[in-house]
Amino acid sequence: MKLDLLRKIIGGILLVSLLAFVHFQPFHDYFNTPQKITIFEGQKISFHKAAPVTASLKDNTSGILLSQGDNSVTLDAKRTGEHELVMDIAGFPVKKVDVNVLKDFKVIPGGESIGVKLNTVGVLVVGHHQVMTNDGKKSPGEIAGIKVGDIITEINGTKIEKMEDVAPFVQSAGKSGKALNVMISRESGKFATKLTPLKEKGDDIYKLGLYIRDSAAGIGTMTFYHPQSKKYGALGHVISDMDTKKPIVVEDGQIVRSTVTSIEKGSNGNPGEKLAHFSDDHQIIGNIQRNSPFGIFGKLNQTMKNGIMDKPLPISLSHQVKEGPAQILTVVDNDQVELFDIEIVSTIPQKFPATKGMVIKVTDPKLLKKTGGIVQGMSGSPIIQNGRLIGAVTHVFVNDPTSGYAVHIEWMLNEAGIDIYEKNKAS
């Protein structure tokens, strides 16, 4: 009995001691201080520490200047490289922090309205239809196992690039009575099938029983331009086919300038939209090489200027973005880029590429009056915080058009083939 009581007393003391230790400020700061800090050359970063904790840089060669007070540590990155920060209490090391200083990196923010023209790999199947034959209604495409969203890439060994490439094969096969050897690309992989065209009753035309499309067009917003490589990023999200709702597999494409003609204001349950048309000269200003979950990417053949921020800006990585005020660059009238106030409601310090890294809210009275918040066509609008490009607008909340998602800029740069980390290694 006495032994059990003694064990309970000792257990209680240990529990109280553990709770006190957990709430001890230096211990609390130990967990809050990240194990790795990444900053850019010329940038400063500060974090909290308790008074008993002392910070020091191991083997520092003036790449970083360290200053500290009773309750904070400040690192001033002077030169690229990797460093080690040691936190100790009374001379005993309690934590090591790896500090990676990246080469100063800048891009030109966008905001311009752009027209997008995508050409698919092959022709996209967007629907089936029944052919009225002497034996009743049939769809050759369905019989061949072709589904909506499939892409026809080859017919009889010949590459198919546009809709006009298909018709000669259909009529020739119909008259000869031979099936077409069709190569299909599907999300699960590629496969071959035989497709036999059928003749429409009372007509001399043979049909496949398929609705197909070879291109898509729309508008969006330029996010950034990298002058050294001429690479750009726009939209911030994947372009999907309006019928199949599946991402468009891009063979190539072009972007042109566009002009906003009017705005359909958004409301709860009804997202708004920018109405725009391609510039009258239809001058191609860049190509499209990639359509990914993070936007469209390629190279520009001429420099774009928004008239507000035409000089390169530094960027912020996902862990450097803070909740609070920010601004977006976008067009709501003609081709004039304007700066509007927003709020970063929440941000996730992502370690790996992912969409929807931030939740944002439009607070600018002028933009709310004009659009109701975030509207279609605003996707890709660059977000600026404290003089740095941090990301792009991507999606609107259907039931709250004032708010939506945004993607961190470092993932768009990664998709564009711009490796800010590799630049540091090369240096």
Describe this protein's structure.
This protein has 427 residues and is mainly β. The chain folds into 3 domains: 21-102, Immunoglobulin-like (Sandwich); 107-115 and 216-423, Beta Barrel (Thrombin, subunit H), CATH 2.40.10; 130-208, PDZ domain (Pdz3 Domain). 15% of the residues lie in helices and 48% in strands. The strands form 6 sheets. The chain has a 15-stranded mixed β-sheet that branches. Strands 26-27-28-32-31-30 form a 6-stranded antiparallel β-barrel. The protein is elongated, with a radius of gyration of 29 Å.
In brief:
The chain is mostly beta strands and 427 residues long.
User: What is the number of beta strands?
Assistant: 32
- Remind me, CATH topology of the largest domain? Thrombin, subunit H
The DSSP helix count reads 7
The biggest sheet amounts to: 15 strands, mixed
CATH class of the largest domain: Mainly Beta
Q: Helix and strand layout, with pairings?
A:
Elements (H helix, E strand, L loop, with lengths): L1 H21 L2 H8 L3 E5 L3 E5 L4 E6 L5 E5 L3 E6 L3 E9 L2 E11 L3 E4 L3 E16 L2 E3 L2 E3 L1 H4 L7 E5 L2 E2 L7 H10 L3 E7 L2 E7 L2 E2 L6 E2 L2 E17 L4 E4 L15 E15 L7 E7 L5 E4 L2 E3 L2 E5 L13 E2 L9 E10 L2 E12 L10 E5 L2 H7 L3 E2 L5 E4 L2 E10 L2 E9 H7 L4 H7 L1
Parallel strand pairs: 1-7, 21-29
Antiparallel strand pairs: 2-5, 3-6, 4-5, 6-7, 8-18, 8-25, 9-12, 9-18, 9-20, 10-11, 12-13, 12-14, 14-15, 16-17, 18-19, 19-24, 20-21, 20-22, 23-24, 26-27, 26-30, 27-28, 28-32, 30-31, 31-32
